Model the fold of this input.
Amino acid sequence: MVELDRNLFLFLNSHNSPFWDGVMSFISGKIEWAPLYLFVIWLFWRNYRGKVWIPILIAVLGLLLSDQISVLIKNFVQRPRPSRDPTLTGLVHIVNNYRGGIYGFVSSHAANTFAFAALSASILKNKWYYTFIFIWAVVVSYSRIYLGVHFPGDVLCGALLGLVTGYGLYFGFRGILNRNIVQGLE
Done:
């Protein structure tokens, strides 16, 4: 499995160009997505009005949980990132000399984007938004492989962690969310 993960990484990471270096660096950024988060807050407000703090609080909780759990897993497993793996020296395409932290399993970017996608899509219940937000999560997650800081397995397991966190929180708080939508519409 480790060899397959490594070979798939080398294949995906080797397909690069100066244009895509810039695009993937942007996509992988955090602050660059502030307009998306503001748009989602607006969508929450549109659906919840005076109770908008409820889905916002749940979304923040989802991001905090997925992020902190992914960091705990990284520190427990201690699998080096491809950009830091001495056996891959000279084989990894690294963009702007960005190498990330020491450990990469699981990807926090993947965990966080998939947690946010699962949670916000479940709360908003809109098929267009659902499609868009999951494509966004996949693209952000792939950017981490492109940039040389995660193996595909890091990303896949991070995405699974995010999905479990996002859907778990949604189903855990579904009663509160549904009750407040109905009350807000009365």
Remarks:
- Confidence is low (pLDDT under 50) at residues 182-186.
